[in-house]
Specification:
Elements (H helix, E strand, L loop, with lengths): L2 H19 L4 E9 L9 E6 L8 H16 L3 E2 L8 E9 L3 E7 L15 E7 L2 E7 L1 H4 L7 E18 L5 E11 L4 H12 L9 E7 L6
Parallel strand pairs: 2-3, 2-4
Antiparallel strand pairs: 1-9, 1-10, 4-8, 5-8, 6-7, 8-9
Length: 220
């Protein structure tokens, strides 16, 4: 076995462990204003898109089902139509076009930041949002004499808005907004996580903004 193959064989288990250890939750900031009655009163609801153009779409229906499931978890009951419902739940979501971010990773001195495990390993580095882990190869990405490394990447802001109105008089009983920054602009990934954040501790304290971390799917 060549030296290169030996290195790959030794590095593979390490990288797999690092990948598993780096599985992080989804961070969101959630603001909620609410005057909802206790669900024990048996209120019924329907979920509708805030944008009428989304009505009947398969993607929206997928997200609406997630909202309905979470409301049912809290004791509300889904109605067959808006005419039969006590509450109308309006759902809206979006993600922006992204913004470029630049971060500087300071050199660790000596051989461009080599540390335990040699070149090409997972290690913590200082980013704009705090310490994190990432694949680090001093030969490819940094000054071999320990200088700083500069990386650029795109960050997307996603937002989900949920409003619940009483059908009898149109009064708003709940207004919630969940926002997140991520490296992904994929709505099928973002929206379910934003919904989960919105319903963590639902309905929450009125007028309060909280930071919520949604665990990875396997840890929920």
């Amino acid at each position: 076995m060549t030296v290169f193959r030996k290195f790959l064989a030794a590095a593979a288990p390490l990288s797999l462990i690092a990948l598993g250890a780096c599985a992080q939750g989804f961070n969101a900031r959630v603001s909620r204003f609410q005057a909802l009655p206790p669900p024990a009163q048996g209120q019924t609801f329907v979920v509708q898109p805030a944008d009428p153009a989304l009505r009947g779409g398969i993607e929206f229906r997928t997200y609406a089902q997630l909202v309905a499931q979470r409301l049912e978890d809290y004791g509300y009951r889904q109605a067959a139509s808006a005419q039969d419902a006590n509450l109308v739940v309006s759902l809206d979501y979006d993600v922006d076009q992204g913004h470029d971010r630049i971060e500087t990773i300071p050199g660790w001195g000596g051989y461009g930041g080599w540390g335990w495990g040699g070149p090409g390993f997972y290690r913590p580095y200082a980013g704009r949002f705090g310490w994190r882990y990432g694949w680090y190869d001093p030969w490819l990405w940094s000054d071999p004499f320990g200088g700083p490394e500069i990386r650029s990447y795109t960050v997307y802001q996603s937002v989900l808005h949920l409003e619940i109105d009483r059908t009898s008089d149109g009064k708003s009983l709940f207004e919630g907004t969940a926002k997140a920054l991520s490296r992904s602009d994929d709505l099928p990934y973002l929206v379910p996580n934003l919904i989960e954040a919105m319903f963590t501790g639902f309905p929450g304290n009125s007028g309060e903004t909280v930071r919520i971390t949604v665990p990875p799917p396997g840890k929920r």
